[in-house]
Here is the input.
Amino acid sequence: MMRKKLLLCLFAIALISCDVEDEIINLLGDGTVKADINGQTKVFTFGQNSVAAAITSGDSGPITVYAFGLAASTDGVSDNSETTAIGVTLIMDNPDVIIAGASFTFPADAVGGTYTFEDENGSTTIDADETVSATLSIAEVDVPGERISGTFSFVTMDPDTNTTYTVGNGSFTNIPFFIN
Here is the structure.
């Protein structure tokens, strides 16, 4: 339902705007995620890439569990190129811990990272989703403006190959952020 509303809004903007790209950026943000993946810097910006952050909740028996998730990926599907994606997730019992200055470290906190990659013809695939180490720090949270910024790093392992991948010097700036 939300996706249909968003598409309808974007279509309306396209009909009345001479510069659609500027309107979309104003509506959805100009967030950037940057990280060194095994020493190679990758920058994800809204537009050709996807960037987002959210707090979601779910019931686990008698308690409610919350998750903060940050994700960034390239769009390899529509342009038949490689796809790279990184994600950071924090499981918590109270969403009020997502404040400026908060820091989380694995394994003391339930924070983890994932890295996936597929080349343009699908012959090389990486699905590293077993966290070895991880940190997440929140620098700014603008709930009314729906934006969040901070830093992260993690080491994760692909269980199929036992290969580890290091995602370091990670930052997220002005990422569209919502609480569900």
About this structure: The chain has a mean pLDDT of 80. The two ends are 14 Å apart (CA to CA). The longest helix spans residues 2-16.
